[in-house]
Design goal:
A hairpin with a 2-residue loop joins strand 2 (41-44) and strand 3. The protein has 2 domains: 2-143 and 231-247; 154-219, OB fold (Dihydrolipoamide Acetyltransferase, E2P). The strands form 4 sheets. The chain has a 4-stranded mixed sheet with strand order 1-4-3-2. A 4-stranded mixed sheet has the order 5-6-7-8. By secondary structure, the protein is of the alpha/beta class. 17% of the residues lie in helices and 26% in strands. The chain starts with a helix and ends with a helix.
Length: 248
């Protein structure tokens, strides 16, 4: 979803800077700007992002690219003094974002309260209100159950069976059957529960915990879905753009 937001804002002629952790746990890596942390550069639907040192942010922006900086605490905010800050960590809680961070501050998903710690909140729950902007109150509380896709909810998720380092045996875009092994965690097999296309899989070598989401299967079996921003991310991105334009 963060990539969907960054992509929409970039296409709308905003200069976008992304802050990331040093080892992102994103699973839909083929459509995530976070993958630049591992590959150096990545392009998503024609928009390029580049791993960048803080001192080189403006140079990357001048190349018509999105800088991705390793800055877990977003310390660059005080340096850049942006017009807007969008918290798209999707931590289901506020990890430190404040109204004082920028003239416009947007929270994505549950854990924020408009008018208290952010200026607006964008709904991330699938359904009638997906992408809605709240200028008072907050988003629907996290249910822990992903939205239905192709008739499946929790079954779509691939979760770690053990703690340790993940090693992949399959690639994003591969067709899988129920019970197929797509990787291991400390030698323990990671299996999928339903047939479909492997739409997401965490980066090799990432340390994971038991029960952590490390991938997902798309039962619709549309190869192009692995390489394009999702309907959900686009809806949330539209809400973020609306909120910025409304509040600026």
């Amino acid at each position: 979803m963060a990539t969907g937001i960054a992509h929409r804002l970039f296409r709308s002629r905003f200069k976008v800077v992304i802050t990331e952790v040093d080892k992102p746990t994103v699973v839909r890596r083929t459509v995530a700007f976070a993958q630049a942390i591992f590959s150096g550069e990545i392009a998503v639907e024609g928009v390029r992002a580049k791993l960048t040192e803080m001192s080189d942010i403006h140079a990357t922006l001048s190349q018509d690219m999105i800088p991705v900086v390793i800055d877990p605490s977003a310390t660059c905010i005080s340096q850049l003094k942006p017009d807007a800050v969008v918290d798209a960590i999707i931590a289901k809680s506020n990890t430190g974002t404040a109204l004082s961070d920028a003239p416009v501050v947007i929270g994505i998903g549950p854990g924020f309260t408009a008018g208290v710690d952010v200026g607006a909140v964008v709904e991330t729950m699938r359904g009638h209100d997906l992408g809605r902007v709240y200028y008072e109150g907050g988003a629907i509380k996290n249910t822990g159950i992903p939205g239905e896709v192709g008739g499946y909810t929790l079954e779509r998720l691939i979760k770690s069976p053990a703690p340790g380092e993940f090693a992949s045996l399959r690639n994003i875009g591969d067709t899988v059957c129920a019970g197929d092994v797509v990787g291991t965690v400390n030698g323990v097999e990671v299996k999928v529960a339903i047939p479909g296309i492997l739409r997401g899989l965490i980066q090799d070598g990432i340390l994971v915990t038991t029960g952590m989401k490390i991938g997902d299967v798309d039962p619709r079996c549309r190869q192009e879905h692995c390489h394009s921003i999702s309907d959900k991310a686009r809806a949330v991105a539209g809400g973020a753009l609306e909120a910025i334009l409304h509040l600026r």
